[in-house]
Amino acid sequence: MVDGVRSCLLPAVPGRQKARPDPPLPVVLLMGPTASGKSALAHTLALRFGGEIVSADSAQVYRGMDIGTAKPGLAERAAVPCHLLDIIDPTEAYSAARFRADAAAAIAAIRSRGRLPIVAGGTMLYFRALTEGLSMLPAADPELRAAIEARAAERGWAALHAELMEVDPATASRLDASDAQRIQRALEVHALSGRPLSALQGRREPAPGLGPTVSLALVPFDRAKLHRAIAARFDAMLGAGLVDEVRGLLARWPLDASMPSMRCVGYRQVLEWLGRGGSVDSLRERGVAATRQLARRQLTWLRRLAVEPLDCFDRGLAGAAGAAVARVLDRSGSPI
């Protein structure tokens, strides 16, 4: 469907008739854990329905971070337009609030071209910001964050996790003691507001109206298959030059382990390995373990969302996903 789903609109009725606005095209929300095949399925759906892809991946926004983020290649982007890739340097930060604004603008532009918006990725906070709105939390404070990081460097993140348990046990109980980024944010929010993060997260700014949506979750009905896919994918990244990619990033930008870009799974482990040394096998073991932990967190998020689960390893996945999209197109009055 090269010209998009609007390409076969019904012919106009002869005579004077007040034109009715076309119904908004649905937004396809395609989410799932890492290594579940989201990008490939999004590409397939985009080709079938005349769509464009909006990345919902907090690592793919960074320039130069290609191998470790499994970013679509040039040939894939030439076949299907992809948005929110390569938009900031690895020295910068990117927030859920900025994603919400950027994604809403991209969706509106895609719809204006009569094409189907497909939001695909594994950053579940981005999907929540887009569909449910954002928690009304205080903005980041660089000085306070630096102070928290200094305490962590001196005492360790496990000690700061224990500190968080004293002031916000609800948040601390759901975080791993090594989850530096979330522990830091929870302590920052408490310091700025005087209230626990868990008490503020229920207060939300409204989400932008998306109109009709179809929400699909690629989940492993057999978790062992996902574990094998994660290991194979990390091996492929190492084979494709992930270590050299990180070396190149360090040569180009003044990066360190405290930056959000270098906290991304894979990059963090390579950065630590380059500083510490050791065997490639030890790097692989740490990278695969961290990716499995990420997938576990993503699946926990998915269980809270109203989505249609699809087995990511089912051979009929593309057909089932296509049928789900077609049903929503039919209901919304958008011809296919």
Give a structural overview.
By secondary structure, the protein is of the alpha/beta class. The protein folds into two domains: 5-10 and 22-136 and 204-332, P-loop containing nucleotide triphosphate hydrolases (Rossmann fold); 142-200, Histone, subunit A, CATH 1.10.20. The protein has 14 helices and eight strands. It has helices at residues 38-49, 74-79, 96-112, 124-132, 142-155, 157-167, 169-173, 180-193, 197-200, 223-240, 242-252, 267-276, 280-304, 317-332, and strands at 27-31, 51-55, 82-83, 116-121, 134-135, 204-205, 213-219, 308-311. Strands 3-2-4-1-7-8 form a six-stranded parallel β-sheet, sandwiched between helices. Helix 5 (142-155) crosses helix 6 (157-167). The model is unreliable at 6-19 (pLDDT under 50).
Which short descriptors sum up this protein?
alpha/beta; Histone, subunit A; 6-stranded parallel sheet; two-stranded antiparallel sheet; Rossmann fold; 336 residues
Number of structural domains: 2
User: How far is the N terminus from the C terminus?
Assistant: 8 Å
Second rung of CATH, namely the architecture of the largest domain:
3-Layer(aba) Sandwich
Number of helices: 14
Specify the overall morphology. globular
State the CATH topology of the largest domain: Rossmann fold
Which spans have pLDDT < 50 for at least 5 consecutive residues? 6-19
How many strand units? 8
Tell me the β content.
5-15%
CATH superfamily of the largest domain: P-loop containing nucleotide triphosphate hydrolases
Q: Find the structural class using helix and strand composition.
A: alpha/beta
Mean pLDDT: 89
- Biggest sheet strand line-up: 3-2-4-1-7-8
Question: Measured on Cα atoms, how large is the radius of gyration?
Answer: 21 Å
The CATH C-level class name of the largest domain: Alpha Beta
**What kind of sheet is the major sheet?**
6 strands, parallel
Proportion in helices: 40-55%
